[in-house]
Amino acid sequence: MSRRRRLRPEELDLWNKVAGTAERLTRDQKTLAPQHPVAKAPAPVRPVDPPATAPRIEPFRLGDKLGGKASRNAGAHDLLAPIHERLHGAPLRMDKKTHGKMKKGKLSPEARIDLHGMTVDRAHRALTAFLLRAATNENRLVLVITGKGRVRDEDGPIPVRHGVLRHQMPHWLSQPPLSHLVLQVTPAHAVHGGTGAYYIYLRRNR
Questions:
Q1: 154 located within any domain
Q2: CB under 8 Å to 83, separation ≥6 — which residues?
Q3: Coiled-coil segments, which residues (predicted)?
Q4: Residue 149 contacts by C-beta under 8 Å, 6 or more apart in sequence?
């Protein structure tokens, strides 16, 4: 065991000088060693399942086949009733007796036009010019031949309408400038072509 060494006078004097400059700390002034928060281990990251790839939606237009494959008759489908049903349900606007004679083929058309073989745009223009000219000539009964149309099922449950001109004619007649000229539209009698031909009875010029 080592012997404790005694301070020499000059060392003791130096110690007393240093001790005299020190200040006593109170309890409030005591600081504790900073405590660093213990870092928590990060929560395990749950892998996110990749989103399911949405199926590609093929563009579809009215008239296309199911599955997005365009039909060769695309645009031919519609929800309108056949023309004979629409004409049958149309209100009677002309004289009943004259209408009866017209339906029986007892009235002779004063002019006629055949739209066979024309495109839709050309047929529309030709029909418009024909009716305007007939009205100018004060004709009352004219005959319009559109050709026969039929409805049949083709590669699917949706009916495909043929005879586009025949089907479009009522729409053309219901719009200006023809709407104010036409008084009545009736399917033609067999003597004047029957199915695929129509009587158009024009209003009287005033």
A1: yes
A2: 149, 166, 167, 169, 170
A3: none
A4: 83, 161, 162, 163, 164, 166, 167, 196
57 phi and psi, to 5 degrees? -90, 120
Domain span at residue 125? 83-202
Q: What are the C-alpha distances in Å from 164 to residues 38, 54, 59, 175, 197?
A: 83, 38, 24, 17, 13
Number of structural domains in the chain: 1
- 19 in a domain, yes or no? no
What's the pTM?
0.55
Segment-wise mean pLDDT, segments of 10 residues, the chain, 206 residues:
69 77 62 58 64 56 45 43 59 92 95 92 95 96 83 45 75 91 93 91 88
- φ and ψ of 202, to 5 deg: -90, 155
Question: Could you give the 3-state DSSP secondary structure of residue 15?
Answer: helix
